């Protein structure tokens, strides 16, 4: 079904990340839908490992300049864009000096999770939502990939609940076996600042628990990895949200 507006929100995409299933799958899904005549946009974090020179990223001044308030602190939102190498497919990068300049993704050189991973996820989710609104581009389908993306539906169905901008968009969540880690114990206070409370994941805030929580806020859950780890598989089996087993990339349009 061409002529759909499809938004991919992801933490990984080839060639910006290599050697992961998620990065390869997102690349293939986005390109397939793009080549079939859909209007496709991709949003991802501008992690420090992504070379701006190599991939020809440039700042979009008209989209940058907003501030996202995280826990009463103003954080400037910078939007960069690039075309997927060799393709006419635009990839937007959410950037911020404080959150995304570092060279590692989620853990430091000793393997310890960054203390502000929760704030980075909140900033990413809100940054994507605000930028899409500024683009004046209303997606028909929002497809989430990667744990940071799981904060998007939570925000859309709580903080942005009275905002009708995304009211007709259908949200698909793909599940992947990502490395779990604790999130800051004060995340409840940070979310409460945005009037978000009552999440089960706040009892034990971890990356995986927020992904499991987000299953309740989407329209469809899909296995992004064919075989999920025990906790994710349990969450998948128990969710009341419509769901699909692993779908080959060539058949992803059946989900949409």
Highlighted features:
alpha/beta, nine-stranded mixed beta sheet, 256 residues, single chain
- What profile does the largest beta sheet have? 9 strands, mixed
- Shape field: globular
Distance between the termini: 8 Å
What is the structural class?
A: alpha/beta
Q: Give the spatial strand order of the biggest sheet.
A: 3-6-7-2-1-8-9-10-11
Indicate the proportion of strand residues. 15-25%
Number of strands: 11
The helicity comes to 25-40%
Alpha plus pi helix count? 9
N to C succession of SSEs: EHEHEEEEEHHEHEHHEHEH
Q: How much is the average pLDDT?
A: 95
Summarize the structure.
By secondary structure, this protein is of the alpha/beta class. It is built from 9 helices and 11 strands. The strands form 2 sheets. A 9-stranded mixed β-sheet has the order 3-6-7-2-1-8-9-10-11.
Describe the protein in words:
- The protein is built from nine helices and eleven strands.
- With 256 residues, the protein is of the alpha/beta class.
- Strands 3-6-7-2-1-8-9-10-11 form a nine-stranded mixed sheet. A two-stranded antiparallel sheet has the order 4-5.
- A hairpin with a 2-residue loop joins strand 4 and strand 5.
- The termini are close together.
- 40% of the residues are buried.
SSE topology:
Layout: E1 5-10, H1 21-35, E2 39-45, H2 52-55, E3 58-59, E4 67-70, E5 73-76, E6 78-83, E7 90-95, H3 97-100, H4 117-135, E8 141-145, H5 151-156, E9 170-175, H6 187-193, H7 207-214, E10 220-223, H8 230-238, E11 243-244, H9 252-255
Parallel strand pairs: 1-2, 1-8, 2-7, 8-9, 9-10, 10-11
Antiparallel strand pairs: 3-6, 4-5, 6-7
Keywords: Glycosyltransferase, Transferase
Catalytic activity: [(1->4)-alpha-D-glucosyl](n) + ADP-alpha-D-glucose = [(1->4)-alpha-D-glucosyl](n+1) + ADP + H(+)
Enzyme class: transferase
